Amino acid sequence: MKPGIKILALFAMLSAVAHAEEPQSPSNAASTGFSGLLRGRDLTPFGYLRLDMMPASVMHLPTGASAVEAQFGYQNTWAMSDNVKQYLEQRNTRTNLTAADAAAIRSMPGEAYFVDMELGQLDLVWHYQIAEPLSAYLVTSAVHFGGGFMDAAIEDFHSAFGLGDADRPTVTRNQFNVIVNTKTSQATHLDGAGESKLLDPVAGLRYSALAPEASAQLIFELATKIPVAGFRERASTGRFDVGAAVTGQYFGTFNAFYLNLAAVYHDHADVMPLDVPSGIVPTAIAGWEHRLTNATSVVTQTYLSRSTYRATDTELSELDRPKILVSVGMRQRMGPNTLTLGVTENLRSFNNTPDIAFELGWTYTPGL
Predict the structure, then answer these.
(1) Is the omega angle on the peptide bond into residue 273 within 30 degrees of 0, that is, cis?
(2) Which of 230, 113, 234 lies closest to 180 in space, CA to CA?
(3) Are 97 and 127 in contact (CB under 8 A)?
(4) How far apart are CA 335 and CA 366, in angstroms?
(5) Cα-based distances in Å from 7 to 94, 162, 345, 357
(6) Picking from 216-220, 300-304, 312-316, which range would have the lowest pLDDT averaged per residue?
(7) Per-residue pLDDT tens digits for 238-247
């Protein structure tokens, strides 16, 4: 596969719809003209129920003011261990997976897994400015698992650009299939029905170390995921997670640069599709935003994170590889409203990360 070609094509499509008017220098680069890193979270199904720190926003509210934000992410995952890949290639037919197929995969020597699904998540975020440098936020989320609708489009795209089919034609399209045989987890869902769940909420504090009007910003965050209803299959780990992050932001006339560093501690949890060991997951996001007009900007960013699995947790090397994701997006501001469209593609670790993900975002910030 050559994902770089896909990223360039997607970026070209996003940039083509931008306005051509000449941008003007904002009076306050930290609060006008730029919208910050894309705020979508990591939707990797392997351990995604853990806390994932969203990149810090660029909004600065008056004391006592609040803002609301909605982020919708949707991803397609086609991932498998090497032994399952060999099994599907030998099967060499596009039909439903059967109970016999599931039994054959579960009985393979060593570890094996197959995940074919789409996942959509809605995050609603409420921001409140406690004091000039300090704000709080609360994230409530819902998720939908299912077979989705993207398989045909992805296969056609791969075919058009000569990227290979990744053995997708060996299974019926648009199904929710999960078959797992690992050290401690066993799970089977064949052509499963779609389902929706409420997820654990996340509460956080955000501290801005520099004045809002400064061209550079340094932001510190602390957050925790709260297991409000204990263990719920595919919706909660039943554990508290805690995380910390620091974000550097620099705003020029036409360009802004961002660096976000975060670390999350998550406790052990046995959730679909795999048993997730406890540990600390570091994450780094570097991004660049360019103003096309006073109201329109484009964003590119790279996400690097260690897997939730280590070599001591699994014999499958594809699971303990780092996740490297590249996102491109476009922002349009209309008064107090900001709309976001983004696309995320993996550059490596194709068997522990979604093939492709989309993000739609809306933010309402009073006073803009």
Answers:
(1) yes
(2) 113
(3) no
(4) 9
(5) 29, 14, 7, 12
(6) 312-316
(7) 889 999 999 9
Tokens of 79: 């991932």
Looking at the DSSP assignment, which residues form a beta bridge with residue 338?
Answer: 333, 363
Selection from 338, 319, 247 nearest residue 81 by Cα: 319
Where helices occur in the chain by DSSP H, the ranges are 3-16, 82-91, 99-106, 151-160
Give how many domains the chain has, as a whole number.
1
From the list 297, 219, 294, the residue with the least C-alpha distance to 256 is 297
Put residue 78 in one of left, alpha, beta given phi > 0 → left and psi -120 to 50 → alpha: beta
Q: Please check whether residue 33 is in contact with residue 294, taking contact to mean a CB–CB distance below 8 angstroms.
A: yes
Averaged pLDDT of the chain: 83
Query: pTM here?
Result: 0.84
Residue 51, domain member (yes or no):
yes
Q: Is residue 278 part of a domain?
A: yes
Q: How far apart are CA 137 and CA 63, in angstroms?
A: 14
Q: For the chain, what is the largest distance between any 2 Cα atoms, rounded to a whole number of angstroms? A: 66
Domain containing 319: what range?
3-74+122-146+197-364
User: What confidence score (pLDDT) does residue 205 get?
Assistant: 96
3-state SS class at 64: coil
C-beta of residue 89 within 8 angstroms of C-beta of residue 170? yes
- 255 in a structural domain: yes
Whether 234 is in a domain gets the answer: yes
What is the CATH number for 259?
2.40.160.40
Within 8 A by CB and 6+ apart from 71, the residues are: 39, 40, 41, 54, 122, 123, 125, 340, 359, 360, 361
Predicted local distance difference test score (pLDDT) of residue 23: 40
User: Quick one: average pLDDT of 5-13?
Assistant: 47
